[in-house]
Amino acid sequence: MKIRQIIDKIDENQLFVPAFQREYVWKRNDAKNLISSLIKDYPTGTMLTWETNNPPELKGKYKYDENKGAVKIILDGQQRITTLYMLMKGLIPPYYTEKEIENDIRNLYVNVESLELEYYKVKMMENNPLWVNITDIFKGLVRERDITDELEKRNNGERLPRERETIISNNIISIKRIEDRDFLEQIIPVKATIKEAIDIFYIVNASGVNLTDAELALAQISGYWPNARDLFKKKLQDLEKQGWVFKLDFVVYALLAVTHKMGSKMEKLHTADNKEKLMEAWKKLDGSVLDYVCNLLQSQAYVDHTDEINSVYALIPLIAYTFNKPDGKLNEEEIKKTIKWFYYSQIRNRYISQLPQKLDKDIGIINDNPNPFDTMLALIDEERPLEIKASEFIGRDIRHPLFSLMKWYFKSKGAVCLGTGLSLRKNMGKKYSLERDHIFAYSVLRDSGIYDMNNQFHYAIAQEITNRAMLTSTENREKSAMFADVYLSNVKKQFPNALKLQSIPEDENLWKVENYEKFLETRRETLASELNTFLKTISIGQVTVSTTVDLMDMIQSGEHSFLEFKSTMRWNWKENKLDKKMEEIILKTISAFSNAEGGKLLIGVTDEGEILGLESDYNTFKEANKDHFELHLRNIVNNAFGKEYTATNLNVRFPIVNDGEICEIDIKASSKPLYLEVTDKGGTMQKKFYIRSGNTSQELDIQETASYIKKRF
User: Fold this and answer.
1) The whole model's pTM is what?
2) Which domain, by its residues, includes 87?
3) Comparison of pLDDT for 520 and 14, the residue scoring more
4) Could you tell me how far CA 54 lies from the centroid of its own chain?
């Protein structure tokens, strides 16, 4: 079918999009790439259609009338077709509303001489007749003569070279020719049922990355429960007004959790026998549970909106737990335990990776364990230490979840904006929305000659969350680049308790630029101490539970700041030989963990989490067993860092995982700096200093090392 015909059929109510299709999610770059491909005569992709007398619910205002016969539905390719409709007509197609267009890709401009595509840029396009809105070309509002006349006018009436006119003319023709390009159409048989059509839609999308499992499940749900999508969207719109922004995926996870008690296997929702169960579950979620959980977090956990949460999926276990309560309410101790777990789930990144598997685990605990949140908290503790250390703040910016915890803690104390004295709780009006401003203005720090962007470590220190205070936006504008000692002195006079309520040191000597790093050290220690106390005392009556994290679950969750995988200790898999250089990599990881907050090293596991085991390493010793492996491991650590370090800082085990034996090394944070001597390419021994940064071991240069040691030890 030609693209021109597709557009016409949409306007003539002959081509529709089913309600189970997701919203328009393409971005501007996707639109540019599609048009560029079409201009170059590259393949356009395909569309999957289904002509039927029994269609599912349709998007848009049009209502199917069986007296009008069969209708044709776009099952796949609607993102491309919608893009073409919007760019060719300059309008939103009738099957969408403005709210369903996540990114408006209209007003794309083309340079009719170079065929470069860009969205409007004043400096590039103003007063340049070569840049034309591509929609105007499709609508016939721009002609070649208009452009060449304007170019000649700007060139004192001198006629353009014939070659240049030809290029412009051919390019405009190439753009117009897009309308007559064929869009390959694959057709589902008319006799197919709605379920069969959605199954085909699922198969087409399951092989790509276009739709998530939750979106595909929602498509199936919408097939047997036609108005489900609209009901879910209405609820999400209501929650958004209160600051809680969720996507439709979130609703699907919630439904899966409460109906099938799991966080994976979305295919459980695909069949129509779910309909009654889902409708009943949604009635409870919509009517009480979702509102209750959001209000609980706002009123008891001081979470005012989802922007403060690093993973909204931490709400799914809370929703499942509340859903299971006969009256849909928690008692005081239950509330405290859920909030305590929620905080730790955020700062220890519980749901940043392996979401379905972790939800499976936690929802299973919710449904089967008498002390679910105590048990789930113990699981987090097994994976990553609960205690917050002052060193965790070093170089962390506002994207780190510790910053959200700081805000929640400040709000729990009744903290106020430093300049207006207004509460940090959710304020009305844009002028009083919360912002996070530097205490020591970055421009002041930069002008001191130390904290510019040329030194990555010093720049990170300048942006650190311990150099941030919570202000209303109106105060942030007035504060500007004022020196910290001047600003904080004024705050102390106007609002005597404001600094203490935001854990800001009140020693005025620390407010001077030359004492900036001492200020940070003091505030890090204060925050670590106060936050640990805050978290520990939320729920005093915590039940001691006996639990261990399944090591395979931990491996599947991937590497992070407290977990590292290494395939081998000394066997080079690439070259298939013994390579003692590999031992330096192990020592590097151990030193990096020790110089940071400690961590766990697993040997015999690839970066991707595949279990290789230790057999190849074992075979490098006279006696191929774990005893000789451990003896050698301890010897190389002894030689590198000393026997005392090895005895007090390492705990070595050899668990069996998926029938493979691996080495598990728990590494404690060191009380003093740990340097590693490594051999450079010239064979010279050099001392190196490593720290753990994210999921990698990072080397610091001499200056960065000195700064880090001063703060860490």
Assistant:
1) 0.67
2) 3-104+181-188
3) 520
4) 40
